[in-house]
């Protein structure tokens, strides 16, 4: 039976057909672990705690930053600098003081995944990087547990429950090979609408509650969400497990032990420092640092400063005298953006120093050999300008 006050706390969901007291007792006896207490993990944790899940684990080694607060709703200005797992646990305890919350401020790895996750009934993937997604999928298969996975970027998100039932596919069945790193980006690089992570995170909590209470149909499907789409949701029926999948297949298994797999290397190695190194390799002689750009702007030389960020970003902030030429327009016809005087120095800037390299290479490809040396891009872009030249320049 439930404590007397829980009848009042959970009464609105217990009166639902098919839920009842048995459903609430199942939630009370269940355990769920959420990997990632960020944009997806916060709403998922909030509704799992509010629904009365008996034991909740939170795994996240990152700390709360000011840039998180627009979407990671369990954190606050007061918890900036605190471990996200600890901040989220505090918020859950304020919501329901009777919750049992396990806090893990260590990074999940192939060495500790099995031991950290094995005591929970359901695993939620609320992360944003490929190595951890593959690690969680493989671990869920090894432990024979459902994996409720969410993803969100820009205005879009997706949801899928992997390893569901006896024949549900795993993440590797759908994505045998990880995408190239240059084709993926974090929320910091691509942007994200906070409410989108809220939609997907809430749906992850909902799928988890359905599985625990026996309301889930256990038919594998991929749910796609677009905040700007009409209709905003689209569901894709998934096939059953791929027999040749190296993780969950019935033939040709190649995975071996989890501890022997280097997931970072499998996904292309450690993510490079794009701000310092740049997205593409280039001649260091064509690259300058923010201080050198400052010197050029203060000089009396005739120079041209191109900003190749999208118009939306240019509208947020820009350097004086800079000209906005979005990268897609420049690379489509670089000759159109050559200076009238071929001996004019051209400096190209973007947000982090990636797109500016591509733009500079495009311009050099259509100008004379002498003029090519006058086209330079700025290492680290406007982020480096704010860090090394003008601390009052906005960082977003």
UniProtKB/TrEMBL annotation:
Necessary cofactors: Zn(2+)
This protein's record includes keyword Transferase: yes
Taxonomy, superkingdom: Eukaryota
Residue span(s) of domain Rhodanese: 299-394
InterPro entries, per the entry: MOCS3/Uba4, Rhodanese-like_dom, Rhodanese-like_dom_sf, ThiF/MoeB/HesA, ThiF_NAD_FAD-bd, Ubiquitin-activating_enz
SUPFAM superfamilies to which the protein is assigned, alphabetical: Activating enzymes of the ubiquitin-like proteins (SSF69572)
Cellular component annotations (GO), alphabetically ordered: cytosol
GO molecular function: adenylyltransferase activity; ATP binding; metal ion binding; thiosulfate-cyanide sulfurtransferase activity; URM1 activating enzyme activity
Keyword Transferase: yes
Pathway annotation: tRNA modification; 5-methoxycarbonylmethyl-2-thiouridine-tRNA biosynthesis
Membrane spanning stretches: none
Binding-site residues for ATP, renumbered to this chain: 39, 60, 84, 128-129
Subcellular localization(s) per the UniProt record: Cytoplasm, Cytosol
Amino-acid positions noted as binding Zn(2+) in the UniProt annotation, renumbered to this chain: 170, 173, 245, 248
Cofactor binding annotation: Binds 1 zinc ion per subunit.
This protein's UniProt keywords: ATP-binding, Cytoplasm, Metal-binding, Multifunctional enzyme, Nucleotide-binding, Nucleotidyltransferase, Transferase, tRNA processing, Ubl conjugation pathway, Zinc
GO biological process, one term: protein urmylation
SMART domains assigned: RHOD
Active site: 187, 350
Family: In the N-terminal section; belongs to the HesA/MoeB/ThiF family. UBA4 subfamily.
Protein name: Adenylyltransferase and sulfurtransferase MOCS3
Species whose genome carries this gene: Hypsizygus marmoreus
Gene assigned in the entry: UBA4
